[in-house]
Structure formats: C-alpha cells, structure tokens
Write the structure tokens for this entry.
Amino acid sequence: GQSLEQPSEVTAVEGAIVQINCTYQTSGFYGLSWYQQHDGGAPTFLSYNALDGLEETGRFSSFLSRSDSYGYLLLQELQMKDSASYFCAVRVNQGGKLIFGQGTELSVKP
Amino acid sequence: DTAVSQTPKYLVTQMGNDKSIKCEQNLGHDTMYWYKQDSKKFLKIMFSYNNKELIINETVPNRFSPKSPDKAHLNLHINSLELGDSAVYFCASSPTTYEQYFGPGTRLTVT
C-alpha cells in the first residue's frame, strides 16, 4: 500500500517558525512535493525534493531524507496569510503520479 | 489570462443524472490530470493524460470517463451520479513530472 503521514493540525504565532513533517511508505519514490491550499482554493505548488537535503525558496524550505522516508516543510517568519492546509505528496513513478498526504491545517495566530 | 480553468465552478444535481466538467489550460503543458478531493480534504488522483493519451487510470468506477480532445482540454463525464460522488474535482496540468498547476475546482453536490 501507499501511505503518507503528516500531523492533522499545527498552530503557531505570527513571526514564528513552524515545521510540518511528512513520513511516507510508497511502492515507488521519485521525489517529495509540498502544496499549499487555502480554504475554498486550489492547491498551489510550493517545493520539490528529489535528492536528500534542504531546498530553500524565500520563507519556505523543504527537506528530504530518503533513507528515513521523511521530509519536512519549514515555514519562517509566519504571516497570517500562511494559514492554510499543507500537503506533502510523493511522486511514485516516472509519469508524475502523485500520492498526497491527508494535509496539515496550519493556523497562524496574532 | 487564467492558467487552468474549469467549468462549472458549482454543480448541484440529483442522483442518477449524467454531468460533465470541462477543463482547459493555456500553459502549453502536455500533461493534464483529474483529482477528487473529499470532505476530509483527501486529494486523490483519478486520471492523467499526456498529449491526449491516457497514462494514469486509477481505480475509479467506470461511470467516470475522461476525454481529451486536444492537449489543452481534459473533460470529465460522470454517468448515473451517486451521493458518494459529491466532492470537489480539480483539474491540473504539468510542465514537469512533479510540479502541477491546479484549476479552481468544481464543487459537485449530488442530492
């Protein structure tokens, strides 16, 4: 089977740093993506890691450890607009099939 | 200059009806997808087309039939709608094998 585990909810305050973890067990692994989805909106692509290590894009960073089947999304200098659901997704084949986690709802408080 | 568009945005219909959702992308991508997001926000791939050819066909009821008339369009037809089909359906397109651009979604409610 294929499974991705991420926390269902995380709460943090404005200006803080938050880390959303994702562990996975899949039949194939080509890379780990992260998507953001605001309520009522569409998922939007944030980052992708195919190799071990840290990728940084502005306030967001994503990390992957393939040996541990683990990754995380790090959000720095949190803003109210970062309140959203965050999904990790594993690319399981060369064709681009993504298996999504159940999402982590991030609430940023003033 | 919408990248991925879907119509309709909302669809309310009765059990047993047949309905279609249309998707268009103007990004020039070769690959397009249909996803279903349920009430718990679980996002599951249904189908994928690459340049009009079906490449992913997940285990979905055969009441669901995708059609790609050209690489910029991917439509989803659903026959004999059931209550369990109520969900948000997202179309997406992709320039690579990992970065996908999602449409705004179609909220389908079956009564």
